[in-house]
Amino acid sequence: MSKLDRIREARQAVQEAALRRWIERSPERQKNLREVAERGIGAADSPMRNERYQTREAMFQKARDLRRIGALPLGLERRMGPTLDWTPFAPSDGARAAGRPVARVVELGGRGTQPVGIATCFLVSPDLILTNHHVFPTKADTVGTGANFLYEESDRGIETGVVFEIDAEAFFYSNEALDFALVGVKPRSEDGRAIAEFRYVPLIEATPKILIGQAVNIIQYPEGGPKRYAITQNRLVDLLDDGFLHYDTDTLEGSSGSPAYSHNWQLVGLHHAAIPEIVDGKIIAEGGVVWDKETMSEEKIHWIANEGIRVSALIRHLSGVTMADATKQGLLNKLVQNSADPADAIAKEVTQPLIAPVPSSAIAASSGHNFNFSGPVTLNVYAAASQSVAAVARPVESVIDVEAPEKVMRFDPDYKKREGYDPEFLDPKDPKFRVPVPRASEARLSEILKGKNGKPLTLKYHHFELQMNEARRLQMWSAVNVDYDSDLKSSRDRKEFGTDKWIPDPRIAGEAQIMDAEFYKPAGNIDRGHIVRREDNAWGGTEREIEFANSDTFHWTNCTPQHEAFNQSAPGRNDPTYIGMKGLWGDFENHVQANLADGDTRACILAGPVLSAKDPSHDFGYGDIQYPLQFWKVIAVPKAQDGTRRLTVFGFLLSQRDVVKKFGIEVFRPGRFKKYQVSLQRITELTGVEFDNQLHRQDVLRGAADEVAFEKVGEVKGIRGGR
Q: Which architecture does CATH list for 420-715?
């Protein structure tokens, strides 16, 4: 069987699965189409999706305005790709730019023969191409294949383009459930051209990049022929929680492995299957007759829809993939870490007014037009009366020659050597100061994420470790060693560690972690709340250790949704609405640090969210996600008491219930929040997290049945100056 025949056979199974999903979603899809027809684009999407979409679109327009006058940094411009070149007319410069990284998957023949097209692929990093699993289910299926770029029609006829050999030895990962394959490609073609000249399409996780009812543009090599742009009658009609999207079309059958773009050429999916019209269980051909497999080709089928895999689903899955080889893992990590939303980078660029320099001659003759671009950025462009608008829009050399790339946060690539939490950290010589990690109770043990040995999996980081609640995709508990000694802290500013960037832990599945696009990004008033604070963990004997410890706290496994007024120690610094309020989560630890016993700088902190079955939930397009309303924290420190140095343990329950109720997770309203000192036994009752008996014995509220509310941190029992 030839490669092309095998792909056709495999594609049929994929199409059958897509058809089942299409039929199951018929009621929801018809509802979407009715709402769009009656009320317009966006009517079938949630208010939050609409708001987030409009915000992203505004950022891209501001970037275009900045570039038009030469005030957009080159580093950011390069990241934007065809999005900046979009025009309402197709095929456009944007379409051609979006199509440049798209290649024909070909079966290579011998010398003097033309390669045979079998599918489509596209570059998603400088080293990797993306196509379907049913194209490359195994490494063996890549042998003798290549990526043929620029195989397209021109005024001179069909250009043969350039071919790069597929290199599965450099990288290969294929997944059947999501029908994708990520494969390496040689850096040089047979005639010496560099793969880098074709750029790549980054897998941007952000949502929403498209609304129901908008166009889905497919760039493809149908049936192995030259490049085609499917740009008409191709509306998005449905988004599925399990990672797929449906778009209707009566144009060409989409080629396996094609990129699916939004109307302004942002990648939204990987195309993988066409859906035929079905009547009474039979496939219908063009003209309304029943399709006969024996006598009709697939081109005769009446294709009514297409299905693709959402980019966010791909990133979520790839985030949890672990490669055996360190070099291959590095390629994968680079791809995943490049999934940040460029709209956020644009927002940073336009938070301060930028005045674009113009030639002095234009200023001298500025008695003519005055153009103002308003918003978070104001751009004042002056032009002489005799100048055209086009002349004013020319890039200004003194601006575009300057590139100021932001520092990228670095993570330790070696996860095997992370030492985790040390129970003997407070005093290795005295067992009375031992602080063991907590554990899930028998009743909740089944919820804990297990390792390959079937036992609870403990994820170790620099200075801390944690266990995940698999059902909630949030941590069950964490334990961190903290040293407040100034000699172990870095003198560098926080920004010198690099721009804050949350990443998945590659040791567990991406689906086991809640990521940005699923909750944090669309929920406007929700912080990506550290359980282990970066300020607590960023210490060490060397700058490298401090940097890696700081970065480790930015894994999604250490993140829980926390309202910004609750999470930040001084929320008014970032939002004037919060001025005068103090966030308990940050402020409390600042106070504890100041109240350690003389000569002691160390503390052990156990913490986590209260994961209750009654927690509220919200669906931002990926199914309901429950978010916690309460958080617990246990702090163990050596304290001098009655002339004796002894272990002292404090338990706390910090609640954002009132904050969320009154502020909301999407719309802000003023409110208050609660804080309590509680016994460890009370924390166990609420959370199902159990503590060592030694910690119970040293608990300052041991035996207290009720929560003790306090308004000021100084009122905490057991703290110097407290009750």
A: 3-Layer(aba) Sandwich (3.40)
